[in-house]
Amino acid sequence: MYLAKVTGALVSTTKHASLNGAKLLIVARLDEHYQPTGTAQVAVDFVGAGNGETVIISTGSSARMSTSKEHSVIDAAVVGIVDSLDLNVL
């Protein structure tokens, strides 16, 4: 899992059946200073995240388990929205 910032949303009318009804977001992974790296990824949103929010992304087989649909093609999923972040700076 990693933290990312929602940078946009996308609509795709033609897609794999396991993605029907899914909300697709564009997310940018955050670096160690919590700044977007510029690398974009499409993630399926299961928690209702909005543009500009910091979210928790799960990838791989863990992301596919976020849905009850069999034979899902999901590779990245938004599984949480960060309410606050407390860093212990040494």
UniProtKB/TrEMBL annotation:
It is found in: Bacterial microcompartment. The keyword rRNA-binding does not apply. Pfam families: EutN_CcmL (PF03319). InterPro entries: EutN_CcmL, EutN_CcmL_sf. Keywords: Bacterial microcompartment. GO terms for cellular component: bacterial microcompartment. It comes from the Bacteria. Gene3D superfamilies: EutN/Ccml (2.40.50.220). Belongs to the CcmL/EutN family. This is EutN/CcmL family microcompartment protein.
